[in-house]
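Record 1 of the preview.
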Amino acid sequence: MTTVHEVNRRAYSLIHPLAGVQVLVFRKRGGTSLKLSYERRRVFLLAGLLIFGAAKSLAQTETTPASSAPGQAIPGTSGVSPFAGSVPTKLVPGVLPLSLPEAIDRGLKQNLGLLLLHAEIRSARGQRWEQLSALLPHVTAAPYVAESKINLAELGLTSVGGISIPPSVGPFSYFDARAAVTQTLFDWKSINATRAASQSLKSAGYTFKDARDLVVLAVGYTYLQAIADEARIETAEAQVKTAQALYDQSTDRVNAGTSPDIDGLRTKVELQTRQQQLIQAKNNFAIQKLTVARVIGLAPGQEFEFTDKSPYRSLEVITVDEALKRAYASRSDYQAAVADLRAAQFSRKAAVAGYLPSLSFNADYGLGGSHPSTATPVADVRGTLSIPIFQGSSVHGDVLQADARLEQSRDRLESLRAQIDSDVRAALLNLQSAADQVNVARSNVDLAETTLTQSDDRFSAGVTDTVEVVQSQETVASAHEQYISSLYNYNYAKISLVRALGIAEQGVKEFFRGK
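->
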Protein backbone atom coordinates (compact mmCIF):
# COMPACT_ATOMS: atom_id res chain seq x y z
CA MET A 1 0.00 0.00 0.00
CA THR A 2 1.21 3.48 -0.89
CA THR A 3 2.23 5.45 2.18
CA VAL A 4 1.32 9.07 2.89
CA HIS A 5 4.95 10.04 2.50
CA GLU A 6 5.20 8.47 -0.98
CA VAL A 7 2.02 10.18 -2.21
CA ASN A 8 3.18 13.52 -0.84
CA ARG A 9 6.54 13.17 -2.53
CA ARG A 10 4.83 12.43 -5.86
CA ALA A 11 2.59 15.43 -5.41
CA TYR A 12 5.63 17.52 -4.55
CA SER A 13 7.26 16.47 -7.83
CA LEU A 14 4.17 17.59 -9.74
CA ILE A 15 4.46 21.14 -8.50
CA HIS A 16 8.26 21.26 -8.68
CA PRO A 17 8.94 20.17 -12.28
CA LEU A 18 12.07 22.28 -12.65
CA ALA A 19 15.28 21.84 -10.72
CA GLY A 20 17.99 24.43 -10.88
CA VAL A 21 15.94 27.56 -11.59
CA GLN A 22 18.00 30.54 -10.56
CA VAL A 23 16.71 32.41 -7.53
CA LEU A 24 17.88 35.97 -7.05
CA VAL A 25 19.85 36.86 -3.91
CA PHE A 26 21.72 40.03 -3.02
CA ARG A 27 25.16 40.66 -1.65
CA LYS A 28 26.97 43.88 -0.80
CA ARG A 29 30.28 44.51 -2.50
CA GLY A 30 32.50 47.21 -1.10
CA GLY A 31 29.52 48.60 0.78
CA THR A 32 28.59 50.85 -2.15
CA SER A 33 26.75 48.95 -4.84
CA LEU A 34 24.37 46.03 -5.09
CA LYS A 35 25.60 43.06 -7.06
CA LEU A 36 23.66 39.92 -7.87
CA SER A 37 24.75 36.35 -7.35
CA TYR A 38 22.75 33.24 -8.05
CA GLU A 39 22.16 30.06 -6.10
CA ARG A 40 20.86 26.90 -7.71
CA ARG A 41 17.65 25.87 -6.07
CA ARG A 42 14.64 23.70 -6.87
CA VAL A 43 11.72 26.08 -7.01
CA PHE A 44 7.99 25.82 -7.45
CA LEU A 45 6.98 26.40 -11.09
CA LEU A 46 4.94 29.56 -10.61
CA ALA A 47 4.78 33.00 -12.11
CA GLY A 48 2.30 34.83 -9.93
CA LEU A 49 3.03 38.50 -9.65
CA LEU A 50 1.76 42.03 -9.29
CA ILE A 51 -0.51 42.15 -6.29
CA PHE A 52 -0.85 44.98 -3.83
CA GLY A 53 1.44 44.90 -0.81
CA ALA A 54 -1.31 44.50 1.76
CA ALA A 55 -2.93 41.68 -0.16
CA LYS A 56 0.42 39.96 -0.50
CA SER A 57 1.06 39.98 3.26
CA LEU A 58 -2.32 38.37 3.84
CA ALA A 59 -1.64 35.78 1.15
CA GLN A 60 1.45 34.61 3.01
CA THR A 61 -0.62 33.57 6.03
CA GLU A 62 -3.63 32.10 4.22
CA THR A 63 -3.78 28.61 2.77
CA THR A 64 -6.69 29.38 0.45
CA PRO A 65 -6.11 32.40 -1.84
CA ALA A 66 -8.73 35.08 -2.23
CA SER A 67 -10.83 34.76 -5.34
CA SER A 68 -10.14 37.04 -8.26
CA ALA A 69 -12.80 38.86 -10.22
CA PRO A 70 -12.99 40.25 -13.77
CA GLY A 71 -12.41 43.97 -13.87
CA GLN A 72 -10.49 44.06 -10.61
CA ALA A 73 -8.19 46.96 -9.81
CA ILE A 74 -4.94 46.99 -11.78
CA PRO A 75 -1.75 48.18 -10.02
CA GLY A 76 -0.70 51.59 -11.29
CA THR A 77 -4.25 52.57 -12.23
CA SER A 78 -6.98 54.16 -10.14
CA GLY A 79 -9.34 51.37 -9.14
CA VAL A 80 -11.41 49.75 -11.87
CA SER A 81 -10.16 51.65 -14.90
CA PRO A 82 -10.36 51.44 -18.70
CA PHE A 83 -7.13 49.42 -18.55
CA ALA A 84 -9.17 46.54 -17.11
CA GLY A 85 -11.29 46.42 -20.29
CA SER A 86 -10.72 45.98 -24.00
CA VAL A 87 -12.32 45.82 -27.44
CA PRO A 88 -12.77 42.10 -28.23
CA THR A 89 -11.36 40.56 -31.38
CA LYS A 90 -12.95 37.81 -33.47
CA LEU A 91 -13.37 34.31 -32.09
CA VAL A 92 -10.59 31.90 -33.03
CA PRO A 93 -11.70 28.27 -33.49
CA GLY A 94 -10.21 25.74 -31.09
CA VAL A 95 -7.97 26.37 -28.11
CA LEU A 96 -5.68 29.39 -28.47
CA PRO A 97 -2.17 28.95 -27.00
CA LEU A 98 -1.22 32.16 -25.21
CA SER A 99 2.24 33.13 -24.01
CA LEU A 100 3.01 36.22 -21.97
CA PRO A 101 4.63 38.13 -24.90
CA GLU A 102 1.63 37.28 -27.09
CA ALA A 103 -0.75 38.45 -24.37
CA ILE A 104 1.15 41.74 -24.08
CA ASP A 105 1.03 42.27 -27.85
CA ARG A 106 -2.72 41.67 -27.86
CA GLY A 107 -3.18 44.04 -24.95
CA LEU A 108 -1.22 46.79 -26.68
CA LYS A 109 -3.58 46.49 -29.65
CA GLN A 110 -6.95 45.94 -27.98
CA ASN A 111 -6.81 47.36 -24.44
CA LEU A 112 -9.51 49.96 -23.89
CA GLY A 113 -7.36 52.37 -21.88
CA LEU A 114 -4.84 52.62 -24.71
CA LEU A 115 -7.49 52.96 -27.41
CA LEU A 116 -9.16 55.81 -25.55
CA LEU A 117 -5.87 57.69 -25.33
CA HIS A 118 -5.63 57.69 -29.13
CA ALA A 119 -8.51 60.18 -29.07
CA GLU A 120 -6.67 62.32 -26.51
CA ILE A 121 -3.67 62.60 -28.80
CA ARG A 122 -5.86 63.56 -31.77
CA SER A 123 -7.53 66.20 -29.62
CA ALA A 124 -4.15 67.64 -28.57
CA ARG A 125 -3.02 67.65 -32.20
CA GLY A 126 -6.18 69.52 -33.18
CA GLN A 127 -5.61 72.14 -30.48
CA ARG A 128 -2.09 72.72 -31.75
CA TRP A 129 -3.33 73.27 -35.31
CA GLU A 130 -6.00 75.61 -34.00
CA GLN A 131 -3.37 77.76 -32.28
CA LEU A 132 -1.02 77.56 -35.26
CA SER A 133 -3.72 78.78 -37.62
CA ALA A 134 -3.44 82.25 -36.06
CA LEU A 135 0.12 82.48 -37.47
CA LEU A 136 -0.59 81.01 -40.90
CA PRO A 137 -1.96 82.98 -43.87
CA HIS A 138 -5.70 82.88 -44.47
CA VAL A 139 -6.79 83.03 -48.10
CA THR A 140 -10.42 83.51 -49.13
CA ALA A 141 -12.33 84.17 -52.34
CA ALA A 142 -15.89 85.55 -52.44
CA PRO A 143 -16.90 86.60 -55.98
CA TYR A 144 -20.35 88.15 -56.31
CA VAL A 145 -22.68 89.72 -58.90
CA ALA A 146 -25.46 92.10 -57.78
CA GLU A 147 -28.19 94.09 -59.56
CA SER A 148 -29.90 96.88 -57.60
CA LYS A 149 -32.62 99.50 -57.95
CA ILE A 150 -32.91 102.16 -55.24
CA ASN A 151 -36.16 103.93 -54.24
CA LEU A 152 -35.00 107.51 -53.53
CA ALA A 153 -38.46 108.62 -52.38
CA GLU A 154 -38.31 106.01 -49.62
CA LEU A 155 -35.13 107.68 -48.49
CA GLY A 156 -36.75 111.14 -48.54
CA LEU A 157 -34.89 112.36 -51.60
CA THR A 158 -37.50 114.05 -53.78
CA SER A 159 -35.61 117.17 -54.83
CA VAL A 160 -32.16 118.70 -54.64
CA GLY A 161 -31.88 122.53 -54.74
CA GLY A 162 -35.42 122.80 -55.96
CA ILE A 163 -34.80 120.43 -58.78
CA SER A 164 -37.00 117.37 -58.78
CA ILE A 165 -35.29 114.03 -59.05
CA PRO A 166 -36.73 110.72 -60.16
CA PRO A 167 -38.33 108.66 -57.38
CA SER A 168 -35.96 105.77 -58.12
CA VAL A 169 -32.68 105.04 -59.86
CA GLY A 170 -31.54 101.90 -61.50
CA PRO A 171 -31.40 99.15 -62.14
CA PHE A 172 -27.61 98.98 -62.05
CA SER A 173 -25.26 96.06 -61.46
CA TYR A 174 -22.09 95.23 -59.52
CA PHE A 175 -19.46 92.58 -60.14
CA ASP A 176 -16.49 91.78 -57.93
CA ALA A 177 -14.26 88.68 -57.95
CA ARG A 178 -11.03 88.78 -55.99
CA ALA A 179 -8.87 86.66 -53.68
CA ALA A 180 -8.01 88.05 -50.24
CA VAL A 181 -5.10 87.06 -48.03
CA THR A 182 -4.62 87.85 -44.34
CA GLN A 183 -1.31 87.22 -42.63
CA THR A 184 -0.21 87.94 -39.07
CA LEU A 185 3.25 89.42 -39.24
CA PHE A 186 3.84 89.57 -35.50
CA ASP A 187 1.65 88.44 -32.61
CA TRP A 188 3.62 87.41 -29.55
CA LYS A 189 0.51 86.04 -27.88
CA SER A 190 -0.29 83.66 -30.74
CA ILE A 191 3.35 82.61 -31.02
CA ASN A 192 3.52 81.54 -27.38
CA ALA A 193 0.07 79.97 -27.48
CA THR A 194 1.27 77.82 -30.38
CA ARG A 195 4.39 76.84 -28.45
CA ALA A 196 2.25 75.89 -25.47
CA ALA A 197 0.03 73.74 -27.68
CA SER A 198 3.11 72.00 -29.11
CA GLN A 199 4.30 71.14 -25.60
CA SER A 200 0.82 69.87 -24.71
CA LEU A 201 0.98 67.60 -27.75
CA LYS A 202 4.36 66.28 -26.56
CA SER A 203 2.87 65.68 -23.15
CA ALA A 204 0.01 63.71 -24.71
CA GLY A 205 2.54 61.60 -26.60
CA TYR A 206 4.48 60.83 -23.42
CA THR A 207 1.22 60.06 -21.63
CA PHE A 208 0.34 57.60 -24.39
CA LYS A 209 3.73 55.94 -24.02
CA ASP A 210 3.22 55.75 -20.27
CA ALA A 211 -0.17 54.19 -20.93
CA ARG A 212 1.55 51.44 -22.91
CA ASP A 213 3.59 50.67 -19.81
CA LEU A 214 0.36 50.53 -17.81
CA VAL A 215 -1.10 48.09 -20.33
CA VAL A 216 1.99 45.90 -20.00
CA LEU A 217 1.60 46.14 -16.23
CA ALA A 218 -2.08 45.20 -16.40
CA VAL A 219 -1.50 42.29 -18.79
CA GLY A 220 1.46 41.01 -16.82
CA TYR A 221 -0.47 41.27 -13.58
CA THR A 222 -3.51 39.36 -14.80
CA TYR A 223 -1.55 36.77 -16.80
CA LEU A 224 0.82 35.90 -13.99
CA GLN A 225 -1.97 35.96 -11.45
CA ALA A 226 -3.71 33.35 -13.60
CA ILE A 227 -0.55 31.25 -13.64
CA ALA A 228 -0.44 31.49 -9.86
CA ASP A 229 -4.04 30.28 -9.66
CA GLU A 230 -3.25 27.44 -12.05
CA ALA A 231 -0.27 26.43 -9.92
CA ARG A 232 -2.45 26.50 -6.80
CA ILE A 233 -4.70 23.94 -8.50
CA GLU A 234 -1.72 21.61 -8.84
CA THR A 235 -0.85 22.23 -5.20
CA ALA A 236 -4.43 21.54 -4.11
CA GLU A 237 -4.55 18.35 -6.18
CA ALA A 238 -1.34 17.16 -4.55
CA GLN A 239 -2.77 17.86 -1.11
CA VAL A 240 -5.95 15.96 -1.99
CA LYS A 241 -3.89 12.93 -3.03
CA THR A 242 -1.93 13.12 0.20
CA ALA A 243 -5.12 13.41 2.27
CA GLN A 244 -6.68 10.53 0.34
CA ALA A 245 -3.70 8.28 1.04
CA LEU A 246 -3.82 9.19 4.73
CA TYR A 247 -7.56 8.51 4.84
CA ASP A 248 -7.14 5.11 3.15
CA GLN A 249 -4.38 4.17 5.54
CA SER A 250 -6.31 5.21 8.64
CA THR A 251 -9.47 3.46 7.37
CA ASP A 252 -7.55 0.22 6.97
CA ARG A 253 -6.27 0.51 10.51
CA VAL A 254 -9.73 1.30 11.86
CA ASN A 255 -11.16 -1.72 10.06
CA ALA A 256 -8.33 -3.82 11.44
CA GLY A 257 -9.13 -2.62 14.94
CA THR A 258 -5.68 -1.07 15.51
CA SER A 259 -6.94 2.55 15.55
CA PRO A 260 -10.04 4.19 17.02
CA ASP A 261 -12.87 5.50 14.84
CA ILE A 262 -11.87 9.08 15.61
CA ASP A 263 -8.73 8.63 13.51
CA GLY A 264 -10.83 7.76 10.48
CA LEU A 265 -13.19 10.66 11.06
CA ARG A 266 -10.32 13.08 11.50
CA THR A 267 -8.65 12.07 8.23
CA LYS A 268 -11.99 12.21 6.39
CA VAL A 269 -12.50 15.80 7.55
CA GLU A 270 -9.00 16.62 6.35
CA LEU A 271 -9.69 15.01 2.96
CA GLN A 272 -12.94 16.92 2.46
CA THR A 273 -11.27 20.18 3.49
CA ARG A 274 -8.61 19.68 0.81
CA GLN A 275 -11.29 18.81 -1.73
CA GLN A 276 -13.10 22.07 -0.94
CA GLN A 277 -9.88 24.00 -1.44
CA LEU A 278 -9.36 22.28 -4.79
CA ILE A 279 -12.88 23.27 -5.90
CA GLN A 280 -12.23 26.88 -4.87
CA ALA A 281 -8.84 26.93 -6.60
CA LYS A 282 -10.40 25.74 -9.87
CA ASN A 283 -13.09 28.40 -9.62
CA ASN A 284 -10.51 31.12 -8.94
CA PHE A 285 -8.54 30.05 -11.99
CA ALA A 286 -11.61 30.07 -14.25
CA ILE A 287 -12.55 33.57 -13.11
CA GLN A 288 -9.00 34.85 -13.53
CA LYS A 289 -8.99 33.56 -17.11
CA LEU A 290 -12.02 35.79 -17.73
CA THR A 291 -10.02 38.73 -16.39
CA VAL A 292 -7.12 37.97 -18.72
CA ALA A 293 -9.47 37.74 -21.70
CA ARG A 294 -11.03 41.12 -20.82
CA VAL A 295 -7.68 42.89 -20.47
CA ILE A 296 -6.16 41.65 -23.74
CA GLY A 297 -9.31 41.70 -25.88
CA LEU A 298 -10.05 38.03 -26.52
CA ALA A 299 -13.47 37.26 -27.95
CA PRO A 300 -16.16 36.26 -25.42
CA GLY A 301 -16.13 32.50 -24.99
CA GLN A 302 -12.66 32.16 -26.50
CA GLU A 303 -10.91 28.98 -25.31
CA PHE A 304 -7.22 29.46 -24.53
CA GLU A 305 -4.43 28.01 -22.44
CA PHE A 306 -1.33 29.53 -20.87
CA THR A 307 1.91 28.32 -22.38
CA ASP A 308 4.32 30.16 -20.07
CA LYS A 309 4.80 28.32 -16.79
CA SER A 310 7.85 30.10 -15.44
CA PRO A 311 7.89 33.52 -17.16
CA TYR A 312 10.66 35.18 -15.24
CA ARG A 313 14.40 35.36 -15.61
CA SER A 314 17.26 36.67 -13.54
CA LEU A 315 17.49 40.45 -13.34
CA GLU A 316 20.67 42.40 -12.81
CA VAL A 317 20.06 45.14 -10.28
CA ILE A 318 21.89 48.44 -10.57
CA THR A 319 22.77 50.87 -7.81
CA VAL A 320 20.22 53.34 -6.49
CA ASP A 321 21.94 56.32 -8.12
CA GLU A 322 22.12 54.60 -11.50
CA ALA A 323 18.51 53.48 -11.20
CA LEU A 324 17.32 57.01 -10.39
CA LYS A 325 19.28 58.48 -13.29
CA ARG A 326 17.75 55.95 -15.64
CA ALA A 327 14.26 56.48 -14.25
CA TYR A 328 14.34 60.27 -14.72
CA ALA A 329 15.51 59.74 -18.30
CA SER A 330 13.06 56.95 -19.15
CA ARG A 331 9.86 57.52 -17.19
CA SER A 332 7.26 58.72 -19.67
CA ASP A 333 5.07 60.21 -16.95
CA TYR A 334 8.02 62.35 -15.82
CA GLN A 335 8.68 63.51 -19.37
CA ALA A 336 4.98 64.32 -19.72
CA ALA A 337 5.12 66.41 -16.53
CA VAL A 338 8.17 68.29 -17.87
CA ALA A 339 6.31 69.01 -21.11
CA ASP A 340 3.28 70.20 -19.11
CA LEU A 341 5.51 72.61 -17.20
CA ARG A 342 6.92 74.02 -20.44
CA ALA A 343 3.40 74.38 -21.81
CA ALA A 344 2.39 76.31 -18.69
CA GLN A 345 5.42 78.59 -19.09
CA PHE A 346 4.52 79.38 -22.69
CA SER A 347 0.88 79.92 -21.70
CA ARG A 348 1.97 82.55 -19.19
CA LYS A 349 4.07 84.28 -21.84
CA ALA A 350 1.05 84.24 -24.12
CA ALA A 351 -1.07 85.80 -21.38
CA VAL A 352 1.47 88.59 -20.74
CA ALA A 353 1.69 89.21 -24.49
CA GLY A 354 -1.88 90.47 -24.34
CA TYR A 355 -0.36 93.84 -23.36
CA LEU A 356 1.77 93.97 -26.53
CA PRO A 357 0.81 95.29 -29.99
CA SER A 358 0.40 93.03 -33.00
CA LEU A 359 1.03 93.61 -36.70
CA SER A 360 -1.01 92.10 -39.51
CA PHE A 361 -1.10 92.31 -43.30
CA ASN A 362 -4.17 92.22 -45.58
CA ALA A 363 -4.29 92.24 -49.37
CA ASP A 364 -6.72 91.34 -52.13
CA TYR A 365 -6.59 91.24 -55.90
CA GLY A 366 -9.15 90.47 -58.59
CA LEU A 367 -11.63 91.96 -61.06
CA GLY A 368 -14.38 94.50 -60.44
CA GLY A 369 -16.92 96.44 -62.48
CA SER A 370 -20.59 96.77 -63.31
CA HIS A 371 -20.58 93.55 -65.34
CA PRO A 372 -18.14 90.65 -65.77
CA SER A 373 -17.65 91.64 -69.41
CA THR A 374 -16.48 95.12 -68.43
CA ALA A 375 -14.55 94.20 -65.26
CA THR A 376 -11.05 95.57 -64.75
CA PRO A 377 -8.28 94.58 -62.30
CA VAL A 378 -8.66 95.88 -58.74
CA ALA A 379 -6.38 95.50 -55.69
CA ASP A 380 -6.06 96.62 -52.10
CA VAL A 381 -3.07 96.29 -49.75
CA ARG A 382 -2.89 97.40 -46.13
CA GLY A 383 -0.93 96.80 -42.95
CA THR A 384 -2.53 97.14 -39.51
CA LEU A 385 -0.82 97.80 -36.20
CA SER A 386 -3.15 96.91 -33.30
CA ILE A 387 -2.20 98.57 -30.02
CA PRO A 388 -4.10 97.46 -26.91
CA ILE A 389 -4.84 100.44 -24.65
CA PHE A 390 -7.48 99.28 -22.19
CA GLN A 391 -9.14 95.86 -22.24
CA GLY A 392 -11.04 95.87 -19.00
CA SER A 393 -8.33 93.99 -17.03
CA SER A 394 -8.99 90.83 -19.07
CA VAL A 395 -5.26 90.45 -19.70
CA HIS A 396 -4.57 90.79 -15.99
CA GLY A 397 -7.06 87.98 -15.35
CA ASP A 398 -5.39 85.78 -17.98
CA VAL A 399 -2.00 86.34 -16.35
CA LEU A 400 -3.30 85.40 -12.90
CA GLN A 401 -4.80 82.17 -14.24
CA ALA A 402 -1.61 81.36 -16.13
CA ASP A 403 0.45 81.94 -12.97
CA ALA A 404 -1.77 79.52 -11.06
CA ARG A 405 -1.45 76.83 -13.73
CA LEU A 406 2.32 77.30 -13.84
CA GLU A 407 2.62 76.93 -10.08
CA GLN A 408 0.49 73.78 -10.18
CA SER A 409 2.65 72.31 -12.93
CA ARG A 410 5.82 72.97 -10.93
CA ASP A 411 4.35 71.39 -7.82
CA ARG A 412 3.19 68.31 -9.74
CA LEU A 413 6.62 67.90 -11.32
CA GLU A 414 8.43 68.13 -7.99
CA SER A 415 5.97 65.72 -6.40
CA LEU A 416 6.41 63.24 -9.24
CA ARG A 417 10.19 63.52 -9.00
CA ALA A 418 10.01 62.62 -5.32
CA GLN A 419 7.57 59.82 -6.10
CA ILE A 420 9.95 58.33 -8.68
CA ASP A 421 12.73 58.38 -6.08
CA SER A 422 10.45 56.57 -3.65
CA ASP A 423 9.30 54.07 -6.29
CA VAL A 424 12.84 53.13 -7.29
CA ARG A 425 14.13 52.77 -3.73
CA ALA A 426 11.06 50.78 -2.64
CA ALA A 427 11.33 48.48 -5.67
CA LEU A 428 14.99 47.72 -4.95
CA LEU A 429 14.28 47.06 -1.27
CA ASN A 430 11.28 44.87 -2.09
CA LEU A 431 13.27 42.89 -4.62
CA GLN A 432 16.00 42.15 -2.11
CA SER A 433 13.49 41.27 0.61
CA ALA A 434 11.44 39.07 -1.73
CA ALA A 435 14.54 37.13 -2.81
CA ASP A 436 15.34 36.41 0.84
CA GLN A 437 11.74 35.36 1.47
CA VAL A 438 11.93 32.87 -1.39
CA ASN A 439 14.95 31.18 0.24
CA VAL A 440 13.30 31.06 3.66
CA ALA A 441 10.01 29.77 2.26
CA ARG A 442 11.84 27.09 0.29
CA SER A 443 13.58 25.98 3.46
CA ASN A 444 10.23 25.85 5.26
CA VAL A 445 8.87 23.53 2.57
CA ASP A 446 11.78 21.13 3.12
CA LEU A 447 11.32 21.23 6.88
CA ALA A 448 7.57 20.68 6.61
CA GLU A 449 8.13 17.74 4.26
CA THR A 450 10.60 16.20 6.71
CA THR A 451 8.16 16.70 9.56
CA LEU A 452 5.38 14.99 7.60
CA THR A 453 7.69 12.07 6.81
CA GLN A 454 8.52 11.57 10.46
CA SER A 455 4.87 11.89 11.50
CA ASP A 456 3.89 9.33 8.88
CA ASP A 457 6.56 6.94 10.14
CA ARG A 458 5.42 7.40 13.73
CA PHE A 459 1.80 6.77 12.71
CA SER A 460 2.75 3.68 10.73
CA ALA A 461 4.65 2.39 13.75
CA GLY A 462 1.64 2.98 15.99
CA VAL A 463 3.51 5.51 18.15
CA THR A 464 1.07 8.35 17.49
CA ASP A 465 -2.42 8.92 16.13
CA THR A 466 -3.64 10.89 13.09
CA VAL A 467 -3.66 14.21 14.95
CA GLU A 468 0.07 14.63 14.48
CA VAL A 469 -0.07 13.52 10.84
CA VAL A 470 -2.96 15.87 10.02
CA GLN A 471 -1.17 18.76 11.71
CA SER A 472 1.97 17.98 9.72
CA GLN A 473 -0.06 17.89 6.53
CA GLU A 474 -1.54 21.29 7.40
CA THR A 475 1.99 22.59 7.94
CA VAL A 476 3.07 21.29 4.53
CA ALA A 477 0.08 22.95 2.84
CA SER A 478 0.80 26.22 4.62
CA ALA A 479 4.49 26.02 3.68
CA HIS A 480 3.62 25.52 0.01
CA GLU A 481 1.21 28.46 0.05
CA GLN A 482 3.83 30.67 1.70
CA TYR A 483 6.30 29.60 -0.94
CA ILE A 484 3.82 30.51 -3.68
CA SER A 485 3.26 33.88 -2.03
CA SER A 486 6.99 34.55 -1.68
CA LEU A 487 7.53 33.88 -5.39
CA TYR A 488 4.49 36.02 -6.08
CA ASN A 489 6.08 38.85 -4.07
CA TYR A 490 9.38 38.31 -5.85
CA ASN A 491 7.84 38.67 -9.29
CA TYR A 492 5.76 41.64 -8.19
CA ALA A 493 8.87 43.40 -6.89
CA LYS A 494 10.67 42.58 -10.11
CA ILE A 495 8.03 44.02 -12.39
CA SER A 496 7.61 46.98 -10.04
CA LEU A 497 11.28 47.77 -10.55
CA VAL A 498 11.09 47.79 -14.36
CA ARG A 499 7.97 49.94 -14.07
CA ALA A 500 9.75 52.32 -11.67
CA LEU A 501 12.61 52.57 -14.16
CA GLY A 502 10.19 53.38 -16.98
CA ILE A 503 11.07 50.31 -19.06
CA ALA A 504 8.03 48.13 -18.40
CA GLU A 505 7.29 47.36 -22.04
CA GLN A 506 10.84 46.22 -22.77
CA GLY A 507 11.60 44.84 -19.32
CA VAL A 508 8.59 42.57 -18.95
CA LYS A 509 9.08 41.05 -22.39
CA GLU A 510 12.77 40.53 -21.71
CA PHE A 511 12.76 39.36 -18.10
CA PHE A 512 9.47 37.44 -18.01
CA ARG A 513 9.80 35.28 -21.09
CA GLY A 514 8.71 31.70 -20.73
CA LYS A 515 11.30 28.96 -20.81
